Amino acid sequence: MLQNSELLKQLKQQIQESVPKIEGTIKATEKSYGFLETDKGKSYFVAPPEMKKVLHGDRVIAKVISKNGKDSAELESLVEPALNRFIGRVTFYKEHLQVLPDYHLLNRALPAVAPDLKEIEFKEGDWVVAELKQHAMSQNRFQVCITRWIARDQDNGLPWLVALAKHQLPTDAPQAEEGALVELPDCSHRRDLTALSMFTIDNHSTRDMDDALYAEALAEGGWRLVIGIADPSAYVAEGSTLDKIARERGYTTYLPGKNVPMLPRQLSDELCSLQAHVRRPALCCEVLIGTDGSITGTPSFFTAWIESKAKLSYDEISNWLELGEPLYHDINLQTPLQALKELAEASNLWRQNNAVVFTDRPDYRFRFDAEGKVFAVVSDPRRIAHRMVEEAMVVANICAAQFLAKHNVGLFNTHIGFEPEKLAEVVSLLIENGYSTSVETLGTIEGYSAFRRQLQADNNLWLEMRLRRYQGYVLTQNHPAPHYGMGLLGYATWTSPIRKYSDLLNHRLIKAILSDETPVSPAPEVGEKLDQQRIASRVAERDASQWLYCQLLTSAVEAETVFEGEIFDISRGGMRVRLVENGATPFIPGGMIHSERKEMTLDNHSGCIMIKGKAVYRLGDLVTVQLIKADEVRRSLIGKLVLPVEDKAAIPDETQQQTEVTE
């Protein structure tokens, strides 16, 4: 009998080992069942009892079970949990504390403990930060630990507080220790430029002004430009407590209606801010611009004392130059302002012909009432004053890149253009669309820039949007390298040291060179961390904006308001558009595009929506949209096309033919 028992065990083990195993990701549904998707795109049904062991997004290993001709997955082991640190809302089950993760399809409250927050009286709906401590697949049950309380469910500041907590960003300005804000010794060696008619141009509400400008037309042609940048390195010593705080934050985080500064407000908004009629320490660059808009000669860097003669706004300068409205400031500023306008136009024209200039798009600004509730979004177009400042900053950063590259130090903004491994596919796509190019050509900054200029001249928005998937990322590196995206051989920012730690570091390096010291470039990991911090800040801004849009546009859903929107993304499930009026980005499900799903193909690769074999919608197209849902819980906007596809005007023949060729 014992021998038979052992043989039976061996037989069962052999059967188990012969059962095929797969690895994949759990995809939950709104119902109790789910699916396991492999990396090759194959899906296996996961029954409700099995789904109780896992969460949406978990990476697992499973056995494939066949029954009645159908395959399903029987979960075996956990590879990687979907949750680690997460944001959620407090709920209670029979007075037991639980946390409901704030993620779509993670619709299960998990048992929770909060041993380090005994002073908090948790209430239903409270927002918290939690960490997964036990997983049901490996430890038989789920349990999470609440590590931080964020806010009550009705707090007006939820969009900001949750976005900052989710991306592990600070919620308040840093505080300076008493006596820490004193000028450092290098201030005594500065030039005195306080008599120069410099000025700042910013938004009306800006308090942390970090750039002042002066321009003059030269008798022999061209212009002289002086850029004065606020110098927080005059107060923040390397390795000091404030320096460590700034390095950890990396950036000032800008959210709708709120900013969280990198430096204490006493510095960013007061001691370093280039306020009008106040003497301030600055790092300056003087550069000559030729009549063709190019940089001529060798720019010079130096430290100085400067005094802005006026705080000007984009609107008042643009109204003065574009509309002829009076400028209610010192009349002596009009000549340098006019010179800056002419310089900026020449510089922009040079970049259009020799580098890459981005298409102007409006900025969208939320407006809030006295209680902090959003009541409107206004569109701020890019006007002449914006371009004046932008061109001056671009010139300044080109000069810094040249200056730092000579000493092989600095933090440089770099961009590789198209990813090298994707170049062949890009070339094939371009040739199909009538462009003559090659891998060798697009692999050079000259060839890449020339192609980008041609694409803009053709106004081929559809192709431009398609090409984004092949682009590399902008990286911060500690060695000189081109910036393909701007069409420049080098670009090193130093014009926002109040707001960006990389710019503060470049200030120190430039000043070290000016003082005949031996500058030392930051380690590579400094740039890597800054890139991560930049992305976190931008995603937090997007998350907060999406929440505010849901609050604001609930009334538009009720009123059945119609908007014009630009298609900027197409996926298997539908398309996403950007509303021209306010910048909101609702999703339009496939069923709201065409009623017969089998007749429609949504192709992200080609950037087209095909209906009955015809390309009807493409990336960059303008469509008419009605919002049908503003889901504040999920922070999502859902829309539908106002006109059914059958009523949509036909695409012009030549465009249709070009689209069909690329398919």
UniProtKB/TrEMBL annotation:
Domain S1 motif positions: 560-646
Main location: cytoplasm
Record lineage: Bacteria, Pseudomonadati, Pseudomonadota, Gammaproteobacteria, Oceanospirillales
UniProt cross-references to NCBIfam families, sorted A to Z: 3_prime_RNase (TIGR00358), PRK05054.1 (NF003455), RNase_B (TIGR02062)
Family as reported in the entry's similarity comment: Belongs to the RNR ribonuclease family. RNase II subfamily.
Catalytic activity: Exonucleolytic cleavage in the 3'- to 5'-direction to yield nucleoside 5'-phosphates
Species the sequence originates in: Oceanospirillum multiglobuliferum
Protein name per Swiss-Prot or TrEMBL: Exoribonuclease II
Domain of life: Bacteria
Keywords: Cytoplasm, Exonuclease, Hydrolase, Nuclease, RNA-binding
Broad EC category: hydrolase
Compartment annotation: Cytoplasm
GO BP annotation list: mRNA catabolic process
Pfam families reported in the protein's UniProt record: CSD2, OB_RNB, RNB, S1
Record-listed E.C. numbers: 3.1.13.1
UniProt xrefs under InterPro entries: CSD, CSD2, NA-bd_OB-fold, RNase_B_OB_dom, RNase_II, RNase_II/R, RNase_II/R_CS, RNase_II/RNase_R
MF terms (GO), sorted A to Z: exoribonuclease II activity; RNA binding
GO cellular component, one term: cytosol
